């Protein structure tokens, strides 16, 4: 019983009541994190107006921080606050970060001229960066604590229930990820605002913020039912201190006059237990294999950045269903839930029956190859997309616009260029493809009178004779445009796809009536997105299959090759490789500046293939061990040494006793002689 009289051992169906609060907390937290992350790169590109490279760089910097902070969270929980307080305090930080992100996406705060664009972008950038830092600190800090805290709630006789809990726990992670990457892009695609309607990033961030608050409240409600273990000290700190002492001691004894040791960690024997040193040696052997691993994560985490940006130039119309660019990420959790049981129950057993020794390191190698193939697929898709894109002038070029408003073709001769035939009613006047899959529309008035043009989605205003309106952005679908001049009017209907640009010419021969469908001339400035989003499915399949073979197998291999008390060290090392992989994306995006996106995909695929070859060589020379058996033999050896020491001490004691007896007997004889004399 707790001090308030609550029974912390209360069970339902054999499970502690407390774990139900932990499971709900994890689902809400994962929904919050993945929901925010799903729309993040588009928020950078379309709200903060960053280019693709800048958006990609900041996105991967954030992801890297999310995988560095778990090390800090584990140390704080194990050495100072304990898991419960660490989860509470950092969840508060986490929730504040999510709320800050939601506020940063409200464009009306600084939109003083009410045109839908923030006038003080610095305010929004600073607020979003603060929010992302707090989120990284919160989500990373609680990451190593929640699962372990849930495991602490079970007693020794509840091993089966504990295993079931972890299965449900990781199901909640994938469930939260799947639902959030479906829902938040839908929220983002809505229009909202006080003075002007824009894409609703504030709602897309606000819902995850609300879910994080729910997660925090649910966790606090179960407070009285938790078993809260006291901090026991963090093994990572002990490992770091031992390694540091070994390095310093080796440096102090670098002279040739000192005898060499079999392993450089043996220099720590002056201060640390031999068993701890032996365990660290086993961990270092696995960590050495981690060196090439960051390159896999370099490719894997780009599905949330580069691949999402790629999808913005694709057609997401699947008939009854229209997929948003950031919703394509849902293919990953769906395939994970499908491929994991297929791999475990079908693929791996079939490979075993074929007589092939498909070791964990070989699985990881194949996983890296699959990820490289995924990026080759992405490059092929990008080449197809590039074929549909117009050629725009670079920063060092200029572009001359020619507009033929007549009804007949016109031949134009420019100095230094061949004669150009300009068809009737045709022009090109954009320097970039319309954003977010919208369509850029404008009207050119060739009449002698002013014409008004409007549609429910946009108002083109009054267009004076022989001039054009500004471009207006409209979504896909069927639209009806109303044209009127004075008391005369007509309607024009047009269906639009994704990412196109059109110029509509109003000829001087236009006759107003019920419809002007045949009179309006259309010039397609930029073709709509014609490469279907379904072409991304193969690259998602290969990257997910690679994840299953690489990530799941890698953790399984690592845990099997390390002592039981060193699992946290390997977990920290594994998360560190993810962080380094994201920093590599940052470096390439900012320094390489490869002009063609398909070429960057090929570069990453080539780098991973080269790293895969190196890793396969390292794996070939790796010898699998059984840490439990080695520890048992080591303890037995230490016990035998202790027994030998005890035996020697006992023999020494017996000799001393014999000597004392001999001395005593001689003394008695002398006394006898003296008495006799």
TrEMBL record:
Gene3D superfamilies: MFS general substrate transporter like domains. It is found in: Membrane. One of its GO terms (biological process) is protein transport. GO terms for cellular component: membrane. The keyword Oxidoreductase does not apply. PROSITE patterns: PTR2_1, PTR2_2. Keywords: Membrane, Peptide transport, Protein transport, Symport, Transmembrane, Transmembrane helix, Transport. It is a multi-pass membrane protein. The chain crosses the membrane at residues 57-76, 88-109, 121-142, 163-183, 203-227, 282-300, 334-352, 364-383, 568-589, 601-622. CDD domains: MFS_SLC15A1 (cd17412). Its main location: membrane. It comes from the Eukaryota. Pfam families: PTR2. Belongs to the major facilitator superfamily. Proton-dependent oligopeptide transporter (POT/PTR) (TC 2.A.17) family. This is Solute carrier family 15 member 1a. The gene is slc15a1a.
């Amino acid at each position: 019983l707790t001090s308030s009289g609550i029974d912390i051992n209360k069970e339902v169906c054999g499970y502690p009541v407390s774990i139900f609060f932990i499971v709900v907390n994890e689902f809400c937290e994962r929904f919050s994190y993945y929901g925010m992350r799903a729309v993040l790169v588009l928020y950078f590109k379309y709200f903060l107006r960053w280019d693709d490279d800048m958006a990609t760089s900041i996105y991967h910097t954030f992801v890297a921080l999310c995988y560095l902070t778990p090390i800090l969270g584990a140390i704080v929980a194990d050495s100072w606050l304990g898991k419960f307080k660490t989860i509470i305090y950092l969840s508060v930080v986490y929730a504040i970060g999510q709320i800050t992100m939601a506020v940063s996406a409200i464009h009306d705060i600084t939109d003083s001229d009410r045109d839908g664009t923030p006038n003080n972008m610095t305010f929004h950038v600073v607020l979003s960066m603060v929010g992302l830092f707090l989120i990284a600190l919160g989500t990373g800090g609680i990451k190593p604590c929640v699962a372990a805290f849930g495991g602490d709630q079970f007693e020794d006789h509840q091993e089966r229930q504990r295993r079931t809990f972890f299965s449900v726990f990781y199901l909640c992670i994938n469930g939260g990820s799947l639902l959030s990457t479906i829902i938040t892009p839908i929220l983002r695609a809505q229009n909202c605002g006080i003075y002007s309607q824009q894409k609703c990033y504030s709602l897309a961030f606000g819902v995850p913020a609300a879910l994080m608050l729910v997660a925090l409240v649910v966790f606090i409600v179960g407070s009285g039912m938790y078993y809260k273990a006291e901090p026991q000290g963090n093994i990572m700190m002990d490992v770091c201190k031992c390694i540091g002492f070994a390095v310093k001691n080796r440096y102090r004894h670098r002279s040739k006059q000192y005898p060499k040791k079999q392993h450089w960690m043996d220099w720590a024997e002056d201060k640390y237990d031999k068993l701890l040193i032996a365990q660290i040696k086993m961990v270092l052997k696995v960590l050495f294999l981690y060196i090439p691993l960051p390159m896999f994560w370099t490719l894997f985490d780009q599905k949330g950045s580069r691949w999402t940006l790629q999808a913005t130039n694709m057609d997401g119309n699947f008939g009854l269903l229209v997929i948003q660019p950031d919703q394509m990420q849902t293919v990953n959790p769906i395939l994970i839930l499908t491929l994991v049981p297929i791999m475990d129950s079908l693929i791996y057993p079939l490979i075993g029956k074929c007589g092939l020794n498909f070791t964990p390191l070989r699985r990881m190698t194949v996983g890296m190859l699959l990820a490289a193939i995924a990026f080759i697929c992405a490059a092929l898709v990008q080449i197809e997309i590039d074929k549909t894109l117009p050629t725009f002038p670079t920063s060092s070029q200029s572009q001359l616009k020619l507009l033929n408003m007549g009804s007949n073709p016109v031949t134009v001769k420019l100095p230094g260029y061949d004669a150009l035939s300009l068809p009737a009613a045709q022009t090109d006047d954009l320097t970039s493809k319309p954003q977010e899959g919208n369509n850029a529309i404008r009207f050119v008035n060739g009449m002698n009178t002013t014409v008004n043009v409007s549609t429910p989605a946009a108002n083109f205003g009054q267009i004076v004779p022989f001039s054009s309106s500004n471009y207006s952005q409209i979504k896909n679908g069927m639209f009806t445009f109303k044209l009127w001049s004075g008391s005369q009017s007509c309607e024009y209907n047009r269906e639009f796809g994704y990412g196109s640009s059109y110029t509509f010419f109003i000829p001087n021969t236009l006759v107003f009536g019920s419809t002007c469908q045949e009179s309006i001339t259309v010039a397609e400035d930029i073709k709509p997105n014609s490469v279907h989003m379904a072409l991304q499915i193969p690259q998602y399949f290969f990257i997910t299959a690679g994840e299953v073979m690489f990530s799941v197998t890698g953790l399984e291999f690592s845990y099997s090759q390390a002592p039981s008390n060193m699992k946290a060290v390997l977990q920290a090392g594994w998360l560190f490789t993810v962080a380094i992989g994201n920093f590599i994306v940052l470096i390439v995006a900012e320094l390489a500046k490869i002009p063609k996106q398909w070429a960057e995909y090929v570069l990453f695929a080539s780098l991973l293939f080269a790293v895969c070859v190196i890793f396969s060589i390292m794996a070939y020379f790796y010898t699998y061990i059984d840490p439990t058996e080695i520890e048992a033999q080591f303890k037995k050896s230490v016990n035998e040494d202790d027994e030998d020491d005890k035996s020697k001490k006992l023999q020494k004691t017996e000799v001393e006793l014999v000597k004392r007896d001999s001395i005593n007997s001689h003394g008695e004889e002398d006394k006898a002689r003296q008495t006799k004399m």
